Known about the structure:
By secondary structure, the chain is of the alpha/beta class.
Amino acid sequence: MPKISHTCSTVNSVDPNAPFLDFEIPNDPTRIEVRRSTRRRRTVSAFREGTTIVVAIPARMSKRDEAQVVPEMVAKVERAERKLRPGDSELGERAAKLSKELFGGLARPSSVRWSQQMQQRWGSCTLDDASIRISSRLQGMPRYVLDYVLVHELAHLLEAAHSERFFEFERRFARAERAIGFLEGWQNAQGDLTDLSDI
């Protein structure tokens, strides 16, 4: 199981002074955080915050019940994310479809792959070999957000610089502004001040 930490809180947010137990699992970036809340009576929920899966449980839940509920809720989040997480081949197919719809098929990447190492940018396009890399942080985000990053990188195959011509290409994706807003909101929540002008 990935890293696990426990926090206790009287509200539905983490108490930064609460003690926690943290377990490291090599090569697994996911962390599981169990949040106990006195406001929560019976319900249990789970959601992702960046590389952390948060499981929110009632403060009075027994350790025995927690041991049963937490793996179930983590599995539920991971199942839901798998539906939103295409593999490299599906990523390439999605890029090809977007290129055909928006650019008449003129943007032709040699490869489109996920990148676990990309933590400062959402995507990159290497013009020398026409390859595109997409940050794995986008896995599980709404499809239109992933599509926007793909379109941004595809546009670089048609116009290298962030010129007016480039942004004309990018604006062909109707939900570009909404996707940028989503990414900015996500970054602000993570304390990430990276400039989205060069994603």
